[in-house]
Automatic annotation (TrEMBL):
Its cofactor is FAD. It comes from the Bacteria. The lineage of its organism: Bacteria, Pseudomonadati, Pseudomonadota, Alphaproteobacteria, Rhodobacterales. Keywords: Flavoprotein, Oxidoreductase. Gene3D superfamilies: FAD/NAD(P)-binding domain, Succinate dehydrogenase/fumarate reductase flavoprotein, catalytic domain. This is FAD-binding dehydrogenase. Residues 7-534 form the FAD-dependent oxidoreductase 2 FAD-binding domain. Transmembrane segments: none annotated.
Length: 548
């Protein structure tokens, strides 16, 4: 049996875990980092992300003519979070401190580590209802050059250097199954050693046990992620009264190692869990034609122009428009069925469709400015988008509406759509383009988006009639619910210490990242403003590493 004594044990070698290790080592602490996956998975889920960071009043924003402030950002955050529970005191405090950091030292700290950002700031999660409610009032989504790999890379480099210097020990294929407590304090971990794996990053790995371990430390930090890879757990905690019944079919936005098991292990040792019913799943999921993990889904990051229809063929009303209100749209979709549809044109897909994930954006991940201009400003959609259009199981392409609807009905024979009903709704929308006035909320939103030069440049197509043949071909995309993030989890105080169900500190145990709802047990409240998942891992990882 393996047996080690160290200052700090970190369970989970994702972004939050690496940040915590970095901060602890800077304090002179010796660190043992454990992960159930193999070395090729160092960096965890963050590796697959688009690399967006929520930052406030940055040079990138100012160059794009965006006026932002800490006060506006905090108003947006609180309007989105809608904290309403007694246990929200620590999540609210984390939110306030994070917005201060995002408007202050965050960018310089990331810059000093080596991160750089694409100059066009994205406008994600726009809300679309009331000024005091959910949504970003201004663009704040800063895409890191290198996408998720660009956020992870500085820490991968440092972990390698720390390991070579003897300051960090990395133990892969070590699955923690229990926390060791002594006189009420957490003093170590125990678990199984799994057989070695050469599977590529993200792929399923063996759970064959070849040994056991028991390691001891002054402090244990849990950074093991959420529950999005276990759909049974997602359904168990699904807020049915708030969102409706969970879908029977969902696609997975995370690898299957995101299994949420550490939640139960920590709870068994005495830790408190809060806000487990708060979760963040996307409405625009499509099946990956080239999957990496089981049931692999990819999220479409749409511009504002695609027409969005529910499973019954009814066009969804504002604010349930592409890119505006994720959870509100999720609830609206589930009122009619389990899937929804985009209907759009070739001109729209070329200008507006992006796909979430580092592997779907090679120009931003591995390239530079010329690669981006060629992929996103030149003729045609990006190669990744065209591949999904041509090979994706959820895509239908046709030269006329009759053929398009026939193809849609072949995909969903149990939920057939009525041709003339769709034609009437699309034609009515097209008729609103005949003059500069409109009562159509989506057309107003499109024109508003194009007032921001970043959207006009690379994210919003010039308004045009969908049923005019010169804008085609027509494209329909069946959209699935895609599981992604847990917004609740282990209850922590502002020092990253895990609390018991009665709110007292559990000595020796800390948490960071998604396992604690990115801080406090859910610093997003009910809604995320995007760029706040990676940012939450950075922020809460720093806190845990500075205190463990």
């Amino acid at each position: 049996m393996d047996n080690t004594q160290t200052d700090v044990i970190i369970v989970g070698a994702g972004l939050a875990g690496m940040v915590a290790a970095h901060e602890a080592i800077l304090r002179g602490r010796s660190v043992l980092m454990l992960d159930q996956e193999a070395p090729q998975s160092l960096g965890g889920q963050a590796f697959w992300s688009l690399g967006g960071l929520f930052m406030v009043d940055t040079p990138e924003q100012r160059r794009m003519g965006i006026k932002d402030s800490p006060e506006l950002a905090l108003n947006d955050w609180m309007g989105s979070a809608q904290f309403d529970r007694p246990e929200d005191a620590n999540p609210r405090l984390y939110a306030e401190r994070f917005v201060e950091w995002a408007a202050g030292p965050m960018r310089q700290w990331c810059f000093d580590l080596g991160m750089r950002w694409f100059p066009v700031v994205g406008w994600a999660e726009r809300g679309g209802a009331q000024a005091h409610g959910h949504g970003n009032s201004v663009p704040r989504f800063h895409i890191t050059w290198g996408t998720g790999t660009g956020v992870v890379a500085p820490f991968l480099k440092r972990m390698t250097e720390y390991a070579a210097a003897g300051k960090l020990k990395l133990a892969f294929r070590h699955r923690v199954t229990g926390l060791i407590t002594t006189d009420g304090a957490v003093t170590g971990v125990r678990g199984d050693v799994l057989e070695n794996s050469t599977a590529a990053r993200g792929q399923s790995t063996s759970r064959e046990v070849t040994g056991s371990f028991e390691h001891h430390a002054d402090a244990v930090v849990l950074t093991t992620g959420g529950v999005g890879g276990d759909h049974a757990l997602v359904r168990k905690h699904w807020p049915e009264a708030r969102l409706g019944k969970p879908p029977k079919v969902m696609v997975a936005g995370v690898p299957d190692y995101v299994d949420g098991k550490m939640h139960g292990i920590a709870k068994a040792a005495g830790a408190g869990l809060i806000n487990e019913d708060r979760m963040w799943h996307y409405c625009e999921g499509v099946q990956n034609w080239n999957p990496i993990w089981p049931n692999h889904g990819i999220r479409i990051l749409p511009g504002p122009s695609s027409m969005w229809f529910d499973a019954k063929g009814q066009r969804m009303e504002a604010p349930f428009l592409p890119g505006f209100d994720t959870l509100g749209t999720l609830k609206r979709i589930l009122q009619a069925g389990e899937h929804s549809w985009f209907i759009l044109t070739q001109k729209i897909i070329e200008k507006e469709f992006a796909l979430s994930g580092s592997e779907q954006n090679p120009d931003l991940t591995d390239g530079g400015w010329m690669d981006v201009l060629k992929a996103r400003v030149g003729a045609g959609a990006t190669p990744a988008v065209e591949a999904f259009k041509n090979k994706g199981a959820d895509f239908v392409v046709a030269d006329d509406l009759e053929t398009l609807v026939a193809g849609m009905n072949r995909l969903t024979p149990d939920h057939p759509l009525e041709l003339e009903g769709l034609r009437r709704q699309i034609a009515s929308r097209d008729a609103q383009l005949a003059n500069p006035f409109s009562k159509d909320a989506q057309i107003t939103a499109i024109r508003g988006a194009r007032a921001y030069r970043g959207d006009k440049l690379i994210r919003t197509a010039k308004p045009h009639a969908i049923l005019e043949g010169e804008n085609g071909p027509l494209i329909a995309v069946r959209l699935n619910i895609l599981t992604r993030k847990s917004l609740g989890g282990l209850h922590t105080d502002i020092e990253g210490r895990v609390l018991t169900p009665d709110g007292t500190v559990m000595p020796g145990l800390y948490a960071a990242g998604e396992v604690c709802g990115f801080g406090g047990g859910g610093y997003h409240g009910y809604n995320a403003l995007e760029g706040t998942f990676l940012g939450g891992c950075l922020f809460s990882g720093r806190i845990a590493g500075q205190n463990a």
